[in-house]
Design a protein that fits this description.
The structure holds 2 protein chains of 2 kinds. Chain A is an all-alpha fold. Chain A has one domain (3-240). Chain A has helices at residues 2-8, 15-36, 38-42, 48-80, 84-89, 95-128, 135-163, 167-183, 203-209, 212-240. The longest helix of chain A has 34 residues, at 95-128. Chain B is α/β, with parallel strands linked by helices. Chain B has a domain at 3-78 and 155-160 and 186-251: Rossmann fold (3-Layer(aba) Sandwich), CATH 3.40.50.300. A 6-stranded mixed beta sheet of chain B has the order 6-7-8-4-9-10, with helices on both faces. In chain B, helix 6 links the parallel strand 7 (152-156) and strand 8 (184-189). In chain B, helix 3 (94-105) packs across helix 4 (110-118) and helix 4 (110-118) crosses helix 5 (134-146). Chain B is globular. Classes of the chains: A mainly alpha, B alpha/beta. The interface between A and B is medium-sized, with 27 and 35 residues. The complex binds adenosine-5'-diphosphate and magnesium ion (MG). Magnesium ion binds at residues 43-44, 84, 156 of chain B.
């Protein structure tokens, strides 16, 4: 009900078309990447999914992060641009719930993007690699893993967007954060715990290094940590306003 | 008479600047209270405290016997408000904007068109709010405050940005609210001429301090007693502010 209200507020902002078109464009990337040099990929002695991940994930992860940054900016820009937020705060509703609903919209949209990206991987696997159907449960695991590693980044990005009344500031912080993440080496465990860097990790890399549980635990801890921080922000903001 | 809103030494200090100082207001039930003061006097700050948008530094207030933060939801359910600059979603139409507020308040669908008609925005309801003129944005804000006829209305300079005909229309509307909907109205302005035509009771604020509280005739009596000009009330107001500013100046 109140989630529906937050969705309605995004009417005519370009949020949903941006995610739809963006996700489709990103999904084209592995297909084009494989189409231009199929022999490079097919001749590798690895499972199809690992080959596709190694060849495409750094690019896809970066674009997904930009989706999150831009999406969060659009979501909060409608609230701040014409002071609508001030009216919202003077109505009998919880601002914490408003934040949760907005975050759910962003997370739902990124799930949608991940599904389209997974569909593109499935297409590549069947078209160029002669994979059997054991591929399907694996892709679910791989993308499920990516989703879990994305949650802390999504939360952090929403917190930043909710704090910056000026959209350009939150956009700038987000873009800088994503660029820092792309510069960090993915084979360094500690540096990869940076919330913006975790989504660049892949499940095959984690299996090779036995990093699965460190990353899942790190994602869980960061999710709890950012949730606590948001609760504190909501409390403090009312007191210092 | 029962007080709908009552403040006790209400004070708001921003870092080192005192915006509201030891305010004791008595806003009576079923009346229009005109909150008068020059720009920067602390009117908006006081109203923001009533809406829980900002926390008092010291002192307290009660609204219909309730207080923050414990009764926040119940208090806000009773208040229709309109603070400072118009607040709206520019990407939504006037009607869609009000529908958001309506859903949060859990009101019937018809309340939106009621409210739009009351403020004279009904024929422009489908237009995007960002395409509205300042006066129309102001009316939209007012419509949002009137939605569902709340028992308390807090209106901060509601005629800002309207043309003379619009000012007259909105003033007449506000004037009619207490007996139409049985509500209490707190309305602010920096013009005494405007408050004079709307309000039953008047509170005059300067630099965060209350200079006068009472009815219009009490104000006239007060002016006479303190040797202030009385033939034009606007002059009375200006003289009061000036005198207070002088007093403040000599204290430093
Ligand atoms: N958030 C804030 N931080 C610091 N000073 C503020 C803030 N909000 C208002 N003020 C100051 O408090 C004073 C009173 O402001 P305000 O209540 O808006 O006056 P009014 O509505 O009567 O014109 C002004 O001098 C203003 O600059
Ligand atoms: Mg003001």
């Amino acid at each position: 009900m109140s989630l529906l209200l937050e969705i309605k507020k995004l009417k005519r902002t370009g949020f949903f078309p941006a995610f739809l078109i963006g996700a489709i464009l990103v999904a084209c990337f592995p297909i084009i990447n494989t189409a231009v040099r199929p022999e490079n990929f097919i001749n590798q002695n690895l499972p199809a999914l690992d080959i596709l991940m190694n060849a495409n994930w750094q690019m896809i992860a970066m674009l997904n992060m930009f989706f999150l940054v831009i999406g969060s900016c659009i979501i909060y820009h409608t609230e701040f641009a014409d002071h609508a937020m001030q009216k919202m705060e003077a109505l009998p509703q919880s601002i914490g719930k408003l934040f949760i609903n907005k975050t759910l919209i962003l997370i739902g949209s990124i799930i949608f993007a991940l599904i389209i990206e997974a569909a593109s991987f499935i297409f590549c696997a069947y078209y160029w690699f002669n994979t059997d159907n054991s591929f399907l449960p694996d892709i679910l695991k791989y993308f499920g893993y990516e989703f879990i590693l994305l949650i802390p980044a999504a939360l952090l990005i929403m917190i930043i967007a909710s704090l910056c009344q000026n959209m350009w500031i939150s956009l700038g912080i987000g873009v800088i954060g994503v660029f820092i993440a792309t510069m960090l080496p993915t084979d360094n465990l500690i540096l990869s715990f940076f919330p913006f860097a975790m989504p660049f990790q892949t499940l095959n890399n984690a299996i090779d290094n036995s990093w699965i549980s460190p990353f899942l635990i790190s994602s869980g801890i960061q999710t709890i940590l950012f949730s606590i921080i948001e609760v504190c922000i909501l409390k403090v903001r009312r007191n210092i306003a | 008479m029962v007080n709908m809103i009552e403040t006790k030494n209400l004070t708001k200090i921003y870092s080192d600047f005192t915006a509201v100082s030891n305010l004791n207001l008595n806003i009576k039930k079923g009346r229009i209270y005109g909150f008068l003061g020059p720009n920067g006097a602390g009117k908006s700050t006081t109203m923001k405290m009533f809406l829980g948008l900002t926390k008092p530094t010291s002192g307290s207030f009660q609204i219909d016997g309730m207080s923050y933060p414990n009764d926040r939801m119940r208090v806000l359910r009773k208040i229709g408000s309109f603070i400072e600059s118009p607040a709206f979603y520019g990407n939504l139409s006037g009607e869609e904007n009000l529908d958001i507020i309506r859903k949060i308040l859990g009101l019937p669908k018809s309340s939106v068109s009621d409210s739009l008609k009351t403020v004279g925005l009904y024929e422009h309801r489908k237009r995007l709010a960002k395409k509205y003129s300042l006066g129309m944005k102001q009316r939209l804000g007012l419509a949002g405050a009137l939605l569902g006829h709340p028992p308390i209305l807090i209106l901060d300079e509601p005629t800002n940005g309207l043309d003379p005909a619009g000012i007259h229309e909105i003033r007449t509307l506000i004037r009619s609210l207490p007996h139409k909907y049985d509500c209490t109205v707190l309305v602010s302005s920096h013009l005494l001429s405007e408050i004079e035509l709307m309000a039953d009771d008047i509170g005059i604020l300067n630099h965060g301090r209350l200079l006068f509280e009472g009815t219009l005739s009490e104000l006239k009596q007060y002016a006479k007693d303190s040797g202030l000009p009385i033939d034009n009330l606007e002059d009375t107001f200006l003289a009061m502010i000036e005198e207070d500013n002088l007093k403040r100046g000599s204290k430093r």
